Amino acid sequence: MARYTDSVCRQCRREGEKLFLKGDRCYSAKCAVIKRHTPPGQHGQARQRKQSEYGIQLREKQKCRRAYGVLESQFRKYYEMAANMRGATGENLLSLCERRLDNVVYRLGFADSRPMARQMVNHSHILVDGKKVNIPSYLVKAGQVITVREGSRDMENLKELKEQGAAKPVPKWLDMDAANLTGKIAAMPQRDDIDLTIEEHLIVEYYSR
Question: How many C-beta atoms lie closer than 10 Å to residue 208's C-beta?
């Protein structure tokens, strides 16, 4: 499957805000968005034209897709699933993205970034209800328990998590036991639980054209 392999900091610069793809670096003065305010490329410093309505919708869709590390084909599938669910399509779309296993691993603090969380899942470090799941796009359900595999608990960031507890707040839809490296899906994520600055109605308008 195709996967973006260039510098992830370029994606943040392209969207003009932090997508938190680089872990602790995103919180430091080394963050590319802080150091360089212009989009990447040779014309990045050129005067930006006023965006069209389509351009604004496209950028919002790209920002959401890149934040969660989802390819276009899969993101469209999420939109189609969201459109067939009860409730607001945009909120359903964000909820589906939040329920991805790699995102849950990141939200629980097992990984410093979503790309790192995706790698942990791919390498079979994560268990769901005691069973190995190595599919980052796996959608968790309420009541499921997420744990780190016993043989993987000597990773440096996990040692710090066990000793010092969660370094960042855990969303209220997740229950976290840092000492045992265990998390539980307490409820389905709601719009208020998602801290990304995404205007989901623009994404709905983009796909509704």
Answer: 10
pLDDT in tens, 142-183: 999 999 999 899 888 888 887 776 667 899 999 999 889 999
Outline where the chain has alpha helix (H): 8-15, 32-35, 53-68, 72-83, 89-98, 101-107, 114-122, 156-164, 200-207
Distance between CA atoms of residues 80 and 192, nearest Å: 22
Closest CA to 52 of 60, 40, 44, 43: 60
Q: What is the rounded average pLDDT of the residues 117-126?
A: 95
Report if pTM > 0.85: no
Distance CA 97, CA 87 (A): 16
CA 165 – CA 30 distance, rounded (Å) = 25
Q: Which is nearest to 141 in space by CA: 205, 177, 110, 95?
A: 95
Q: Are 79 and 203 in contact (CB under 8 A)?
A: yes
Which 3 state secondary structure label does DSSP give 132? strand
pLDDT digits (tens, 9 = 90+) for 23-53: 555 445 555 545 555 665 554 554 456 789 9
